[in-house]
Amino acid sequence: MLRNEKKVAEDGGEGGEFVDNQTVATDAVFGELTEEGPNYRAVGWKGAVVLMLKTQIGLGVLSIPEVFDVLGLIPGILCLLAIGICTSWSGWIVGVFKVRHPDVYGLDDVGRKILGRFGYESFGIAFALFCIFVAGSGILGIATDLNALSSHGACTAIFVAVAAVVGFGLGSIQTLGRISWLAWIGTFSILISILILTVSVGVQDRPSAAPQTGTFVSDYKLFATPDAASAFAALSSIVFAYAGVPAYFNIVSEMRDPRDFTKSLIYCQTIMTAVYIAIGVVVYYYCGSYVASPALGSAGPLMKKVCYGIALPGLLVSTTMYIHFAAKYFFIRFLRGTTHLARNTKIHWMTWFGCTGSVAGIAYIIASAIPVFGGLVSLVGALLGTLICFQPMGGMWLYDHWSKGKERKSAKWLLMVFWCFFIIISGTFLMISGTYGSVVGIIDSYKATGGSAAWSCADNSNSS
Which positions fall inside the Amino acid transporter transmembrane domain (predicted)? Predict the structure, then answer.
C-alpha cells in the first residue's frame, strides 16, 4: 500500500496528490515518488475498469466466433463461461494478494514469495513472454487491419514494421495513469467496431467468405465433433480472451487505492463476458463455418473496411499496453531499489526506452515469423495464458491460507483447497493439450493452399 504524508492519509490515501514540493509518497515498490519523476500511483477505479477491459477486449473477442464454429454453439458458450468464472476468481485473488502484500508489483514478485528464486525467474519470464507474444498478435492484427483498409496497398511485411514502430512509440508512455485515456478510446473503438460487425452480418445476404452465388443458408452448429487438436486449440483461444488477468497486477499496483480493485474487477468481467457471448453468438449464427479470423473480416467488402477502420485504434491500444506491460517488468527489475526508478535521470530514460524498444523489436519478429492470426492467438493462450492465469493464483491462495487452515480444517477451507488444486490441475492440462493443438493448427495452416509464409508480402486480411 501507499504510505503517504499525513495530509494524504487523512484524505483517504489518494496516492497521486502532492503534499509538498518534494516527496509525494513512499511506495512499497517504487520507493519515494516525487515531483521530479513520474507519478506511478494515479489510476482511479474507473480508470482501472477501462484499463482491464482493454487488456481483455481486443484480439481475443475477434477469435470467439471461430471458437464456436469448432466446438459448436452450446459447448462453446459453456466453455467460455467456465473459463470466465475461473479467470474472474483469479483476478479477484490478484487484488486480495496485492492488498495483503504491498511489495508485490507483478507476477515475478508472487513467484518469489511462493517458490523463491525459481518462482521469481519462471513466473517473471512467463509473464514477459506472454505480453510480448500478445503484442506480436496485436502487431499482426494491425497489419491485417491496414491490409483490409488499403485493399493490400503495400507489402504485409511493411505494415507489420509500421505497427511495431507505432507500438513502440505509444508503449513508451511511462505510466498507466497516462495510458488510461488511450484505453478509453481503444475500448470504445473495438466495441463499436464489433457492434457494427454484428449488425452487418445480420442484415447482409451472406458473409464475405461464403460462395457469392446461389442460395446461402448459415451452417452454424449447436454441437460439433472436433478432433482433439482442434478442440484444445479452441479452448486455448478462449483462455487467450481472458488471459489479461496477470496484467491486473500492474493495474492494481498503480491504483490510487488498491482496495477499490474488486469493484473495478466486477464491472470489467461482467461487461467483458456479456460482450464475448453476444458477439460470438450473433456473428457465428449468421456466418457459420464461413466466419473469418479475425472476425472483422466476416462482413462484406465495404463493411469489412468500415469495421477495420473503426477497430484500428483499439488494436493499436492493445499492442501499446502489452508492450508497456512487458517493458515495465524489465524496467522495474533493472532499476528497483535505485533512485533512478522514480526520477527522470538519464539512466531512467535510457533504461526505459531500451526496454520498450527491445520488447517492440521481439514482438515484431514474432508477428513476422508466425503470420497466422488464429494459430498465434491459440498458441499464446495455451502455452503462456494458462500458465499465468491459473496455476499462480491457486498457489497464491494456498500461500496465504495453508498453514493457518491446517490447524482447524474448516469446511470452507477444505472447499477452497479443493478449488485451488482444481485450478492448478486444470490449468496444467489446458496448457499441455492446448499447446499441442495450437502447434498442429499452425503447421496445418502453413501446409494449406494460400497459407502465409514468414515475412510474407501476401494479403493476410482474407483468411477464414
Answer: 44-439
